[in-house]
Amino acid sequence: MIEGLLSALADSVTVLEPLTNDFLRANGYSIATALGASSQNIESNGPGSFSGPFVDSPQALAVLAAFIAAFAALSALLLRRRDVA
User: Fold this and answer.
1) What's the whole-model pTM score?
2) Could you count the other beta carbons within 10 Å of the beta carbon of residue 60?
3) Which H helix or E strand runs over 18?
4) Across the chain, which distance is largest between two alpha carbons, in Å?
5) Burial bucket for residue 29 (CB in 10 Å: 0-12, 13-18, 19+)
C-alpha cells in the first residue's frame, strides 16, 4: 500500500522518483517482464496492475536478493531470540 501511494506521489514530487526504483513492487514486475511477461498485461491486469517505472534486470535481481537476505537475517534473529529449546 505504501509503495502504491509513494509511486502515485512520485509523479508530482520528483524527489520521490528515485526512491520508487528500490521498491519491491517495481523490481518484482521488472523481473516478470525480463522473464517474458508483456508490459501491456502487467499494466492492465486488475488490482495488481503496474505501469512503471521498470528497472534493469541486474538492479532488480540485486534488490530482490537484498530483500530476501534482509528478511532471512531478521527471521534468524527473531527465531534465535524467541527459541525456547
Assistant:
1) 0.68
2) 22
3) helix 17-20
4) 52
5) buried
Report residue 47: phi and psi, to 5°: -65, -25
Its domain, for residue 25, covers 2-82
Residue 38 has phi, psi (to 5 degrees) of -80, 145
Portion of the chain with pLDDT greater than 70, in percent: 78
Give the H or E element holding residue 60: helix 57-82
Instruction: Report d(CA 71, CA 85) in Å as an integer.
Output: 22
Can you read off the three cell numbers belonging to residue 33?
A: 517482464
Neighbours of 23 (CB within 10 A): 20
Q: For cell 521498470, name the residue.
A: 54
For 44-77, the pLDDT digits (tens) are: 665 566 666 778 889 899 999 999 999 999 999 9
